[in-house]
Design a protein that fits this description.
Order of helices and strands: EEEEEEEEEEE
Mean pLDDT: 95
Strand content: over 45%
Low-confidence stretches: none
Largest sheet: 7 strands, mixed
Radius of gyration: 13 Å
Structural class: mainly beta
Distance between the termini: 37 Å
Helix content: under 10%
Number of strands: 11
Amino acid sequence: VKLVESGGALVHPGGSLRLSCVASGVAVSDYCMYWYRQGTINRREEVASFGFDGTPTYADFVKGRFTLSKDNAKNTLYLQMNNLEPADTAMYYCRADRCTAAGEYYWGQGTQVTVSS
């Protein structure tokens, strides 16, 4: 199983980025899929996710700015991030699991997003 994130970059406040997570060994259509992030002083926190019913959920701090999507044919998870703020600076990670607290789960290596003027 492999999750490979990409799309992170340095952007100015108010800018946009689209992160991608290409999955192999798991089908994004069959797993709960997540984006997490971890800043330099913060613990890893959930940003957005597709639950077992396929409904996207978002952390309060990104609602209205970030949009989660996936392309089952490309086996890829996306995170469109608009109106970025310096507080969004973090390493962003993709995660896949079986929608339960226990059991198998997988992480990608992360992609760095830096928002700075």
